[in-house]
């Protein structure tokens, strides 16, 4: 009797100890369920892929069970020491453009699309050398992300996008709990100048009230050639175009005389002048002033579907505003549209498992309406600076779409004090661009880069993201 009761106490002790150890959920001690889910998302045998040592995962994360909304992700572990590296989410803009098509396959991912076979080549300057790298197609209607309720596609806007992306993250961390303790950062370009700060704000607010279980370890964000403020962005586009000898003195004067970019509706005189301004970007690439354009006559898909209601309110009323970015090989978008629509590629990525009724495109053809987009993101930036997030803004200086001029006007409007004056920064012996450090925000220019900065200056871009993630100043002298 005495013996068996001792034995019972001992058993109880062992059980308590074991369950406490399990509850601590150390990395590498994931439950069978979670491991099985991760295993199901593991990408193996991706057609045309160069061999790599790091693991990759892709698949769907449900964000709204009632509507049947699911967002598609592609995740790459860091090339080395993934357990010690931060987690970085990359977002492209549009709105409606794919982070797979642009971010992963044409800018900063490990596998860049190329003409012919093999279809993918390894990117020496891939950002998963600096971080565990997560690409998200957001919102529903973009790329492989879908909603089972087709009316959802007509009810999109900045607010829904941020809310769904937040739910994506909460649920993604449930599938990959080993990354919950990592420092988390968000980066993106273009219209992600709206998405990234808006998502950061949702996380920031939710962290204050949510159960610790859903806490997201957000440390900061970085945005490039980012749409931030209708007034300064549009003014900067016109000034940049004149200053880069793209428009005539007369067109410039007409815009200055007849347009007021604080208003969303413009006079006929203003619209006529803007038509002349946009006409120039029919013949040269607005996203990269000095790059060749794709002259492949078989393609008529330079133009994307127009979306009503997006920011900036004046310029988005013009068709050429909705033209898609090209790339360093200006025809590269054509190869990715073929590649991502291949059945074997979709199977390898666990994509399109519900037979989405339209093809994968770089920028959505099904989103045609946008319900909300604030005229300025500066109030959010101010709030998050005060909240202590690390914020870097960068700009490729040959982009005519959201030019460095626009961003400088925007930062002037933000009105921060300067901590370190405007100075060159270096990549080896060459000036990579200029940088200025404000109280709460760092601004970096990248010399000779178009809108999709990593496409044009891959080595300097990897240097930029490494310095951002480690919060280190860029080199101020040749080395
Ligand atoms: C959408 O519908 C398909 C087919 O019924 C189903 O398999 C899928 O799980 C649904 N998606 C979501 C996110 O509920
Ligand atoms: C531009 O429009 C804004 C808002 O309507 C107005 O406050 C401002 O005075 C206008 N600027 C000029 C120069 O007319
Ligand atoms: C999904 O697959 C169907 C064929 O089953 C195809 O018609 C459609 O274009 C695909 N859509 C996407 C977004 O890949
Ligand atoms: C800038 O610095 C001055 C002097 O220290 C201070 O009074 C002011 O509040 C600062 N402005 C901002 C926006 O931090």
TrEMBL record:
Coiled coil: none annotated. Gene3D superfamilies: 3.40.50.11320, 6.10.250.940, alpha/beta hydrolase. Keywords: Carboxypeptidase, Disulfide bond, Glycoprotein, Hydrolase, Protease, Signal. Transmembrane segments: none annotated. One of its GO terms (biological process) is proteolysis. It comes from the Eukaryota. GO terms for molecular function: serine-type carboxypeptidase activity. InterPro entries: AB_hydrolase_fold (IPR029058), Peptidase_S10 (IPR001563), Ser_caboxypep_ser_AS (IPR018202). Its EC number is 3.4.16.-. Residues 1-23 form the signal peptide. Belongs to the peptidase S10 family. This is Carboxypeptidase. It comes from Nelumbo nucifera.
